[in-house]
Specification:
The chain has 499 residues and is mainly β. It contains four helices and 31 strands. The longest helix is centred in the C-terminal third of the chain and has 42 residues. The strands form six sheets. An eight-stranded mixed beta sheet has the order 7-8-6-9-15-11-12-13, with no helix packed on it. A six-stranded antiparallel beta sheet has the order 22-21-20-24-18-31, with no helix packed on it. Strands 1, 3, 27, 28 and 29 form a five-stranded antiparallel beta sheet that branches.
Length: 499
Amino acid sequence: MKKSVALNLPLVLATAALSLCAGVAQATTDASSPAAYAIRIPVALAADAPLQRVALPAEVLVRLQSPGYADLRLFNGAGQPVPMALAGAAAAPAPEASVVLPAYPILGSATMATTAGSAPLEGLSLRIEERQGQRVVQIDTPSTAGAQAAQVVRGALLDARGLQQPVARMALDADLPAGQPVTFQVQASQDLKTWRPLAETVLYRADAATTPAAPGRLGAEQIDLHRTSLQGHYLRVTWGDAAVTLRGATLVTTHSAVARERVSARLAMPPLTQFQAQPRELVLALPFATPVAALAITPPGSNVLIPVRVLGRNHREQPWSPLASAVVYKMVLGGKEQASGPIELGGASVREVKIEADPKTPGFAAAPEVALQFEPVQLVFLASGQGPFTLAAGLTGATGAASAFLPLASLVPGYQPQQENSLPLAQVDVARADITGGPPAGGALVPAAAVSSGVSLRSAVLWGVLVAGVAALALMAWLLLRQTQQADKQAAAAPTDAA
């Protein structure tokens, strides 16, 4: 007699489905394989430097699938990821200028009581006189107001009222007494009456006759004024009763910090006919998740002005979130064409962007020029292993991937703020980039697709999974019913076979 073996087909189907899902997940998130990334760029290292940095080009930023840069790696020649950290790029140095201000001496009586390191200037009578083409500032006390007693220089005034830019630091042009530390105090006032302290420093000049090997001067020659605005102010420099001759001071002014130059990439806009024949509403799908700092929109034509709103979302099931509003224009003023600046988005990470024109305007006659701006980012790494080194970015399914970045303090021994900006800069060879599926139109030219009003890919996938699950359950129920019927028939036929 043949013995039938019942095959548990539902269990087999479920196991196969789980195995398939696991295989797909592993294939789409294999972060340890350079070949799994969308772009791979050769990196040329600086010579003889274990710690280096590399600036991320636009070709990398427009392929990242994680807003936290989790799908970014730097591999050595053996295909191993190297230790790395993420850092912002350094701001451009602020331009500086030097201004030399002459010193106007402040005179006082030689019999005035003084304290160490300071001059008793409060409550004194102050006047400014012109003497033989020179301005002299004189102070009088009740005991010397009516008589010309022996006078000494107690300090000096500097006229800083004309300085337009903040002052970063100042250096004194002064002769010091030998072998005596001198404390200089710097104060500011708008009316020569009420003074507020700014800074102080101690300078010392060694006696060359007694100590010929000693350095000429000790102390902080540059007095830090912390970018203080001195427009409309006087400066007062005092040094007690030391025998000091102050001829003037050099002040270093600095402009506001120059913003870091952003990384830019243009959008390859589809024709306006693909935007649902709606000239006032452009909905674009972005193929990356990198945070966008700003959006530059240039309308077509000449002498055009359109108020717009920019909204964003990550998938079609989400409501639109407003990101910014501005007026975009392009017009000729004074014989020169002028265009509106970029619209700040504040580092938004969205996969769909909507540009809405004001309904009171005709909208866009053609698709506008749109450029994306990203904040500059650099990768700090340890060049471990042998070359060649490869920068890889863009990994499917990396939205929730774990970050591979170390803290800068762990990567750089004895780390100090902004120390990464002094590391040697490695170079990326974008021209030799290996891009999966071929490069987009023009390297950093991002292909933006118009979003249709049909079912989104996310919804289609979810509905497909739902339908497949229902079909699998129906198949499992049918197989169970069939097995049950076969078992009942075998049980009914068993006594006949025994007889």
